[in-house]
Design the sequence.
């Protein structure tokens, strides 16, 4: 014991402690870097989740818009209602309804129905026997109520163009045509078959 160099032992312990402390400091620094890296990753994930949510919402809005334009969902909006009636002198036929529908489409109608039958790209409007008309393969009879959603003033003006619009053209030869603006018009969805067999994506 007397020959033991206490100072040397203390110096050795101090060196070990210093080395150990340095080692721990190094480990702490590594952990701090790892923690910072994890925080950055979490921020990236949160940002990605938020972006995905926004993208999902945009896609859902676009899908809803596409569904409305395709006619596969019920819609409501301001527009006009056109009423056609048979009388002793004239009788409404499919050709006349088709002409009206085309004129409304040219006037930027966003949704059209005939006696609550939604008019879409696949809609058939044809005459059958006994003076009946088929719309979407469903029989419709007079009075024919054509509901239209779109810019009211433009739609009404397009139908009332003097000598060229549908109203002026057909009332002059005895047809009963009535046009009125209306808010909150409800048009049901297309309930027929929309199976696509031949169209392919380019």
Sequence:
């Amino acid at each position: 014991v007397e020959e033991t160099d206490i100072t040397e032992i203390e110096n050795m312990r101090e060196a070990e402690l210093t080395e150990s402390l340095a080692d721990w400091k190094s480990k702490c620094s590594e952990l701090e870097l790892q923690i910072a890296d994890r925080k950055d990753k979490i921020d990236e994930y949160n940002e990605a989740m938020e972006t995905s949510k926004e993208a999902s919402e945009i896609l859902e809005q676009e899908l809803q818009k596409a569904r409305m334009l395709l006619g596969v969902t019920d819609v409501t909006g301001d527009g006009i209602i056109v009423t056609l009636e048979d009388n002793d002198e004239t009788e409404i036929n499919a050709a006349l309804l088709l002409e009206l529908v085309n004129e409304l489409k040219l006037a930027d109608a966003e949704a059209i129905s005939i006696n609550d039958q939604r008019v879409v790209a696949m809609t058939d409007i044809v005459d059958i026997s006994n003076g009946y008309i088929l719309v979407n393969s469903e029989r419709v009879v007079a009075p024919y109520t054509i509901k239209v959603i779109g810019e009211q003033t433009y739609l009404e003006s397009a139908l009332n163009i003097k000598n060229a619009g549908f109203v002026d053209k057909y009332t002059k030869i005895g047809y009963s045509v009535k046009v009125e603006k209306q808010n909150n018009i409800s048009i049901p969805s297309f309930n027929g078959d929309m199976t696509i067999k031949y169209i392919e994506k380019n």
Remarks:
- Residues 14 and 20 are 10 Å apart (CA to CA).
